[in-house]
Amino acid sequence: MANQNVQLTFVWDGQQRAQVYYVIDNGRATVLADAALSGRGRVVVSFTTAASATHVLKWSLWFPGKTLKNLALSATVNGVSKSIASDESEEHHWAGEGVWR
Predict the structure, then answer these.
(1) Which of 24, 29, 25 is nearest to 51 (CA)?
(2) Other CB atoms within 10 Å distance of the CB of residue 86
């Protein structure tokens, strides 16, 4: 089976630091906590996974002791970008689930 390149882009207002704790794609953990997966106002995560018409994504973004506003997640699969989720404001942690199809 062919593989697909997936890129997730987490963004939020301001320059508060946050770190991706995990990303699960179609039930498979593709990203686990890594200090390199952190940023201020934006974190980009890339991975290769089995080809699929649908990607069910679960994620956790950590920012202990902080409140982040206007969070958004987009996913690009083989060059096709789609909005996955957004939230006005979260404290300490943003976890969710969304589908790219």
Answers:
(1) 25
(2) 14
